[in-house]
Each structure stands twice: as C-alpha cells, then as structure tokens.
C-alpha cells in the first residue's frame, strides 16, 4: 500500500488517454507489454509520499492547501510515448508551470514529514512489462493513428491517493487549484 499525490484526468482527457492506450495495445504485435493499466488506474503521480502510510496526513492537508492556493490551473500536453525500465509511459512536454507545481508539492511533502525523493518526471503509465523484464528493452509500439498525440490536458486538482491491494486506488482528499 502506498500514498501519493496525483493528477486524475477529467472525462474528456481520460477518453483520449484510453484511446491512446488501446491503440498502442493493438500495435503491440508480440504482446511484449503485459499489464495494461485500466481506465480507473490512469493518473499522473505528482509526488510519491510513502509506502505503508500512517493515519490521515493532517500536516500534508494544510501544506497542500497552500500549494493549491498558490497555483492556477496548468495547461500541459502528453506528446510522446517512451519505454522506461519499469513501464511504458506517455510524457508531457517541458512546462515551467508544472515544474513549479512539482517543486512546491515536494517542499510541502518534506515540510509535512515525508521523506525526500528524487526528481519526479511528469508521466502517465500505460503498461508494465512482464515480471523480470526491463521495459526499456522492449519495443515501443507506434500509435496506429498519428492524431492520438498530442493530448491536451489541464491540471485543475491535486489528489491524495492510496493504493489498496486488489481494489486499485482510493482518493483520500482533493484540492482545486486556484482559478486564474
């Protein structure tokens, strides 16, 4: 069980991300990628907090209140698919507003007592390779339709999410970013 801060796509964006995932799956000719994420699992981790979390993160709530009040909605786009060692992902274009949000989220997490983490590269996981296989050794399927990318998206909310073994994800709290 882990606890993390995430962006959960809205309905229209989720539909586009699912179309990308499904298109890639049809192009995965040798079925290299095994664990394709379900619709409800598609999210962008903004900051991993911890494994085996303690009770409700009350200090974090106050810290993220301040982060959400400081940042307006953020426009971004997923514009490429890459194979990383642990996963097949779609990445966002470089974005100063998103980088600033990630930095502030990291500072808020540290101030709330969560451990320091490495730099978070904005991405959304689409699939995982079979156990024991590194994803960056597998072919990246080409989207069947070049119109599937880029996918425009907007971060309007930050959520605290907990993984629940066998059940998926549970949202514990959510904050709206301030409106521009």
Largest sheet descriptor: 5 strands, antiparallel
pLDDT under 50 segments (min length 5)? none
Identify the overall geometry.
globular
Give the helix/strand class.
alpha+beta
Rg over C-alpha atoms, rounded to the nearest angstrom: 16 Å
> Kindly state the mean pLDDT as a whole number?
91
Proportion of beta-strand residues: 25-35%
Strand segment count = 9
The strands making up the biggest β-sheet line up spatially as: 2-6-5-4-7
What pattern of helices and strands is seen along the backbone?
EHEEHEEHEEEE
Share of helix, binned: 25-40%
Q: Gap between N and C termini, in Å?
A: 35 Å
User: Please, how many helices?
Assistant: 3
Overview of this structure, please?
The protein is of the alpha+beta class. The chain is 26% helix and 33% strand. It is built from 3 helices and 9 strands. The strands form 2 sheets. Strands 2-6-5-4-7 form a 5-stranded antiparallel β-sheet, covered by helices on one side. Strand 4 and strand 5 form a beta hairpin. Helix 2 runs antiparallel to helix 3. The longest helix is centred in the first third of the chain and has 17 residues.
